[in-house]
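Lab notebook, entry 208. We have the chain sequence and a SMILES string for 2-acetamido-2-deoxy-beta-D-glucopyranose, and the next step in the workflow is to get a structural model of the bound complex before anyone spends time on docking refinements. Request logged below.

Task: model protein plus 2-acetamido-2-deoxy-beta-D-glucopyranose, output structure tokens.
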Amino acid sequence: MFLPILCVFSLILSSHAAVQDFCVGDLAAPEGPAGYSCKKPANVTVDDFVFSGLGTAGNTSNLIKAAVTPAFASQFPGLNGLGLSIARLDLAVGGVVPMHTHPGGSEVLLVTQGSICAGFISSANTVYYKTLKKGDIMIFPQGLLHFQLNGGGIPSIAFVSFSSPQPGLQILDYALFGNDLPTELVVGTTFLDKAQVKKLKAVLGGTN
Ligand SMILES: *[C@@H]1O[C@H](CO)[C@@H](O)[C@H](O)[C@H]1NC(C)=O
Ligand SMILES: *[C@@H]1O[C@H](CO)[C@@H](O)[C@H](O)[C@H]1NC(C)=O
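Result returned:
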């Protein structure tokens, strides 16, 4: 009579033992492809699972008039290993997150203030874009080029969540014009005029 109950108990205990509840990142250790190694459970506190930075507007006094405040694993180690993260996006009037990709994860964006024209380009080069208003949500599939632009009259705010604790970010304009890739190669690979490439390199901090 006790045996079935014991069996159930031992099943519950063994299944618990097999699953690790969390792996709060040890930011002092190096980060590998699978994320950070785990902090000792005895050293984990509630603050590892709470991030308080997203209530404050980012500084949009920059070329793109935009600020992304990330709560990725490097800022928010409790996310390590859990396959998700979040960030705040502030766009001043006329602000833009230029064409970019997140190699590591898909994105879902929720507009909480103002309006944002957002879109992505599929690998078949089909464009999907729309002007989103407060309360609208849009999805940007992993790895695809996409953008967000505030064409409205007031600053806009959005919160973006990713299917990765470290989604990564590569902005196309900076990849093309913000480094030392020689002008002739940029001209040769983009079909742009040399003068235009030189101008964009000057604006975006590129050389050569
Ligand atoms: C973990 O906590 C112990 C004491 O509770 C401390 O001595 C040790 O330095 C801590 N380790 C880390 C990595 O914070
Ligand atoms: C915002 O950034 C600009 C340019 O880097 C800087 O001059 C300004 O002091 C910053 N403002 C705040 C409130 O940090």
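Notes for the group: The first helix runs from residue 2 to 18. Worth checking against the assay data. Helices lie at 2-18, 172-177, 183-190, 194-204.
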